[in-house]
Request: fold
Amino acid sequence: MADHNVPGDVPDDLVETYLDNLMAATCGTGAMNLFACDQKIEHLNDDFYDGGVKIPLSSNDPGHLFEIGARAHGEGTVGVLAAQGGLISLYAQDHPDVPYLVKLNSKSHLVKTDQRDPISLAMWDMDDVMSLVSNGINVVGIGYTIYIGSEYEHEMLTEAAQFIRQAHEEGMIAVVWMYPRGKAVTDEKDPQLISGAAGVAACIGADFAKVNYPRAWEGMTQPESLKIAVESAGRCGIICSGGGTLPPQEFLQRLWDQINVSGCRGAATGRNIHQKSTEEAVRMTAACHAIISQGASVDDALDIFNNA
Reply:
């Protein structure tokens, strides 16, 4: 664990706690397989119910997320389950040992940027987080979304920076979701903007930053373009968004590229895990873990998903 960077605002007597939380969140590897379960606010019910056409009917129950997380944690294949504080308070007592990341802010997708620039302020604070810890929930860190380029970016940056410091003072990790978005942003997948957002995450002291997969720079592939963002973030580990639902082989190939070409320190996956039956979802977390932390090939990971 001595090889892992410890931020300077972590108190000396909590360095081991911070490293323990980092290891819990990353299955002991320093590379994060984050299960993103924050979409019931972000996307409302769009990702959880379609009448059973492509999404299993079981996915409409929030408990499905925690069942997947608990099963995958039991197999050592998912690092951390990220969800809003309220969702964790309702369900985590059934599975208290799963490492949790409390998402402090969220907003729905109903208000579009042509109506108002996005803003998402905190609904919970560190006292709320620590109350979960006091009740035996294994909270290892906090998460926060920042819409860089919004006219309200300063409010979000200020809140996020304060929460990151407070999390570190408790020996916890901090993950930020960094999304260029607002009327000033003409291309949310612009590789220069994604790299800039990654650098901002480092400037406010985040341990990890989730970014969207940028489009390719001219003369580069998409994974090579993401590598620029990884370099821009320095010691802040970049974890790339899982994006929309993809066929398993295509998704796993993209993940392999992000880890092995881009140099990401993990991935944040939601729909490509939870829009499946529990059994398939648990196998997909294992396939992701194999690529992120065990150096598996796409074929090997696909075999894990297919239960071969």
